[in-house]
Specification:
Length: about 170
């Protein structure tokens, strides 16, 4: 009897621990979703967002407006969904955290400063991991993002470009 009670206790305790861990994981994903929303990742990484019509069926699956950085090249916001070929499907959570907080991709390339990783360096480790956990749970979307384009290369997307105000054509009437 004594040992049966003991086993029952272990079982119930185990069940609580299991549901507790599940709830924690869910909390982490909810926190990640909140952070990704308020940090504006989708402004750049969701197609159509800069044109006033974000394509929510392809949320965070890559932008359609690139950023030209004078002298460095032109950079398209990349596919953040877990698609293995065109997104972050093969990245570990830690690799995502490193890219978001230090700009360093797994292949060693440093992301252009148009991706605001210098600001995101101020994230806490827990919040950065929550962002990674949320991105990993997005529905994977196959969407190959072109570029990055070198300074002399022909760019195939729309572009944000820095121009002197004096050189700008007047806005259409
Ligand atoms: C102002 C626009 C902008 C915002 C806001 C932004 N990004 Fe980016 N992001 C970019 C650009 C542009 C690149 C590509 C830079 C390059 O290729 O050098 C990029 C690249 C990345 C990469 C590297 C992916 C790869 O395949 O190389 C990750 C990861 C990433 N962003 C995550 C995020 C997350 C998470 C957020 C929100 C917390 C976010 N970004 C917000 C513009 C942005």
């Amino acid at each position: 009897m004594q040992s049966l009670r003991c086993w029952l206790f272990v079982l119930v305790a185990g069940l609580f621990a299991f549901t507790g861990t599940q709830a924690q994981a869910q909390d982490q994903v909810t926190r990640g979703k909140y952070l990704v929303t308020i940090m504006g990742c989708g402004d750049c990484h969701t197609a159509g967002a800069f044109l006033g019509k974000p394509d929510m069926a392809r949320m965070l699956a890559g932008g359609d407006v690139a950023f030209e950085v004078p002298g460095l090249g032109t950079f398209v916001p990349r596919n953040l969904t877990p698609d293995k070929d065109t997104g972050l499907g093969n990245w570990t959570d830690q690799e995502i955290v490193t890219a978001v907080m230090t700009g360093k991709r797994p292949d060693g390339r440093i992301l252009a400063p148009a991706m605001p990783w210098m600001d995101f360096a101020a994230l806490t480790k827990d919040d950065a991991l929550a962002i990674a956990a949320y991105l990993k749970r997005l529905p994977p979307v196959k969407n190959a993002i072109p570029g990055p384009f070198g300074p002399q290369e022909k760019v195939t997307t729309l572009v944000y470009r820095i121009v002197p105000g004096s050189g700008m054509a007047p806005p259409p009437k």
